[in-house]
């Protein structure tokens, strides 16, 4: 059964429902509890769950075309050139993802101030929903390598986990992995925190691989994801929903956007180290990207 089809005249969701009921499905959704153990769920109606569960089917390493700036890492990974993507979600259904991030800035000026961007007014944008699904797939596949790399202890000692205060180690590595797959990630340093932002025409996505440090670390509730991926509104909702478990006196604006700047030079150094083969804690990331092993 086809999951969905987007014709040029109108959106048609094909889930075996009647045409009348399909017309009632909208892309906005009320706030829902955050129950996913790994990623914060995308705000979308229950009927959209089949679309959002497609991440295992996303052939992301070969399918996401990196912008020109990310070419060196992709060239080393040996990923084949993807087919072009049209402007229609039929291309998403066909498995073409190469242009899903076209027209978005890959990098900003080092030290550029960063502020929160709210989602555009009106209903959720289908393209942003699909982009978020792709980002989830990239992160899901990269998570074991990221965990292994962080556990090698270059930041906080051996056996460090993503539950702990290791944002200065985990966020640059995750940003480099996202860029290597063609996702236009920016590394951000705020007054207290490192995290990743995707500034897309359709909206801003926040990606935080160490969010559990603000909710009791390893004792964080199950509903706090290992990696947060979502909009500013979803991030605020997560903090409100788990307010009782919060172990920092600061809220989202202070943690994420107080004196927040782009750390482009830092990220470029991580990317250069990945290409050059060191330091040793980057080896799990190199294996994940299909790069040659470090020769000691």
The low-pLDDT segments are: 1-36, 42-89
Counting DSSP H or I runs of 4 or more residues, the number of helices is 11
Strand order of the largest sheet: 6-5-4-3-7
Roughly what fraction of the amino acids lie in strands?
A: 5-15%
Radius of gyration over alpha carbons? Answer: 19 Å
- pLDDT averaged over residues: 73
Architecture overview:
By secondary structure, this protein is α+β, with helices and mostly antiparallel strands. It is built from eleven helices and seven strands. β4 (194-200) and β5 (203-208) form a beta hairpin. Residues 1-36 and 42-89 have low confidence and may be disordered.
List keywords for this structure.
single chain; 296 residues; alpha+beta; 5-stranded antiparallel beta sheet; two-stranded antiparallel ribbon; 11 helices; disordered N terminus
Describe what is shown at a glance:
By secondary structure, the chain is of the alpha+beta class.
Walk me through the topology.
Blueprint: E1 5-6, E2 11-12, H1 19-23, H2 49-52, H3 60-63, H4 71-77, H5 89-94, H6 126-151, H7 167-180, E3 186-189, E4 194-200, E5 203-208, E6 228-230, H8 232-241, H9 252-257, E7 261-262, H10 264-276, H11 283-289
Antiparallel strand pairs: 1-2, 3-4, 3-7, 4-5, 5-6
Helix pairs in contact: 6-7, 6-11, 7-10
